[in-house]
Amino acid sequence: MCASLVIRLVNKMRPGLTRVTLLSLILTVSAAHASEDAASWLERMSRAAHSLNYIGTFVYMHEGKLETMQLVHAVDEAGEHERLLSLSGPHREVIREHGQVTCYLPEKDALVAGHPTTPPGFPLNLPTQWEQLRDVYDFKLLAVSRVAGLQAQQIAIVPRDTLRYGQNYWVATDSGLLLRADVINEQGDVVEQLEFTSVSLLEHISAQQLQPQAGSRVVDLSVTSLPSEVKTAQPLHWHVANLPAGFELELQRQHAIAGDGVAVDHLVYSDGLASVSVFIEPRRDSTGENAGTSRRGSVNAYTRLLPQQRVTVLGEVPPATVRQIGESIEPLAP
Amino acid sequence: MMNDKNREWLSALVDGELQGQELEHSLNALRNDSELQASWKAYHVVRDTVSSNLDDSVDLQLHQRISTALESEPTILAPQRRARPWLKQVAGVAIAASVTGVAIIGLQGMNGVDSTPVAVPVAQQQEYLRMEPTLVAQGNKDKEIERAAQNSDALNAYLVNHNEYSANSGIQGVLPYVRIVGHKVGQ
Hints:
A: alpha+beta, 20 strands
């Protein structure tokens, strides 16, 4: 809608209160339009991330550090194949295919293996959550600028409170690929930034380009599924008494810790964009159990020791949000 | 008696990190041990000194001696292994441990134990201390790194599970895994 035309039309009307009311009404309507435009951009971005063949190089900035990484993404009849690898510092790599996640972390030659999963919301399906999302975030379409030599539409997602982070996305206008993402904290500071310096869309990506570099040993750390894995159907016996506004329980499951097969309860809470996981596992005898906070880029974690269990809450939300959830989790009365 | 274990919980107590039974046990121990009480006082003096919070009743010369010594090391590029003699003179090993803790925190920021050296001016280190008051006792440095590596593994496993079910992955695919790839332990 052309704003100046609207204002001219409004000006022709009877002056006074009616005009002001009508103008603010029209402005509200066009703001709603802008946020729906933002939503369609986000959906396009989500579709592109999962459906295109591409190789890109990007820089990742967090905690005053800078790293260069490469992303390879391919889709074929078998599904998605993704490979994320460090180009600076020690060689580290994540391979993800058919929901199986393999992390090569050379400092301990470690590998973390995931089990085949079908995560919810792949790709992102915004309309179903749109009303819920608009209660807690404001969506804005900003200017078109240039990132990685490509035209990019900037989209701002601004939280309406301090319980979640803001996001700024730059999305390629031609392909819909995400080219730059900034995560912004309560103080307006960028806590994490990811920006592609080059992206190539390709017809075909060879199997070799998706192979991990040789030489890594394998230690299975975690994340195998228990046969009894439950998803929401059979509730786990935990309850968050003081859940931050806008968050809802999205799923519950159990998985086993590799090695000893101890069951971990996993609850996922989400406000539609940000997710917070709660992991509850039996306490061990070892003295290595620490309570407290830690951080990885925009992901904050809070660990609390209960008499019998150890609770770890983590998600891409401010420290206060994980703490609030961690401090108010309690077992449900039988 | 002042051993590593006592030092650890005393730090935690000073930082208000203990709760429940742990808190009760600590307070009982503190009540019955004059050496622990002296360390308790010393911890608080150090903490207030680095955040320039001292009131008039406290020996200002001590405050100045510590501040001057800190200023003479404006940037600390690596965690110190050796206790600094001037600190020993001031208030004993307990204080040395906790001030070294300050330096280590300055390096780590809020990022758990990741000892990539980053030049942080002392003023900023003090800021970090207020934000994330965790003292790392010097004698436990190696143990801390080992523990950090274990915690890092645990956190990685949690992150994989989290990523696989988070809405963020719906938007960004494998990109949320930058938080695993971008994290280095003990480098």
